[in-house]
Amino acid sequence: MKHLKTAVIGVGHLGRFHAQKYASLSDLQGIYDANPARAAEVAQELNCRVFASIPELLSSVEAISIATPTSTHHEVAESALRAGVHCLVEKPFTLNIQEADALIALAQEKQLVLGVGHIKRVHPAIRHLRQAGYGAPRYLEAERLAPFKPRSLDIDVIMDLMIHDLDLTLLLTGAEPVDVRAVGVAAVTDKADMANAWVTLNNGSVANLAASRVVREPARRLRIFWQDRYASVDFIQNTLHIYHRGEGAVPGIPGVRDEAIDLPKKDALAAEIEDFLTAVMQQSPVFCDGQAGRRVLAAALQVRSAVDEFLSRKQEK
Fold first, then answer.
1. Rounded Cα distance, 226 and 159, in Å
2. What is the pTM of this model?
3. Count of structural domains, the chain
4. Which of 154, 186, 256, 298 lies 20 to 30 Å from 23, alpha-carbon distance?
5. Domain containing 82 — which CATH number?
């Protein structure tokens, strides 16, 4: 992968980390950011070039990450794909389904890799559960809570945080939402900063998802229930426990066996980018393609619509 010419467009908080990984995994040609001072700072750190414009950058590379504000994802990715450049677009994929569809069609036309940065897919716990062959879970519940940070404020907490667990819900169930109910509150910004969603899928699975970006103590937990066991994932502690149902008077209580899975400590962003670059080199499937990014975007938009309806009803009272 070292011979692949790469770059990063947008080197804010997350984009800087993308650039660091590309510098170690590929031939990083340089970066571009709308803020020249930020671009110069990151370029100095990585000893790479600052491109004067996006067209200049695109003429010099084969693959890029796009870590700009969501409102610009479509415009930047469209320019890249038209220039024949493979793209890894940070989540959320685009602002709306129309933009997502346009990028998917263009990538297919140009035969280019189009990945979407749903990084939790490469977490060792999720990979273990997908390989275990347990089938679709019956119920999932997630908490994704974070202290307030003055970034990603162009999107609400659904697109910022909850979208991770929506993606894992669709991935692990292999199903699509048929009913979405949600509530939310704008606490600090003018968008929903806290939300809770109840999602019923077309295979009968149900997910209860909570997200907040205004709490003191962060939490990133996912619990997944099957007929005869459940899994508990703590993304912060990097732990996975699988509880197998016992055989007693009360099913599932006496004799429950706790199986602690030894997870490797892995740099998730490096794994995500390595997967993307491998897909570019081998023309193989990427860990999360445009269609998958579109599906979770559609689910997130359904949650947002339900939150908007809830807030509208509150205002009417």
1. 27
2. 0.92
3. 2
4. 154
5. 3.40.50.720
Beta bridge pairs of residue 9: 32, 66
Torsion angle, CA of 125/130/132/138, rounded to 10 degrees? 100
174 in helix, strand or coil?
coil
Confidence band, pLDDT 50/70/90 cuts, at residue 187? confident
| 11 touches 30 (CB < 8 A) | no
Domain final position from 112, 143, 170: 112
**Nearest to residue 287, comparing CAs of 81, 69, 162, 127?**
127
| Residue 290 is assigned to a structural domain of this protein | no
Distances in Å between the Cα of 200 and the Cα atoms of 85, 128, 150, 230, 232 are 38, 24, 33, 19, 20
Range of the domain at 160: 121-266+300-312
* Cα 41–chain centre separation: 26
Report yes or no: 17 and 25 within 8 Å, Cβ to Cβ.
no
Residue 269, amino acid: L
For the stretch 111-138, pLDDT in tens is 999 999 999 999 999 999 999 989 999 9
Eight-class DSSP state of 289: B
Structure tokens at 177: 């939402």
- Token code pair at residue 161: 């945080």
34: which DSSP letter?
Answer: S
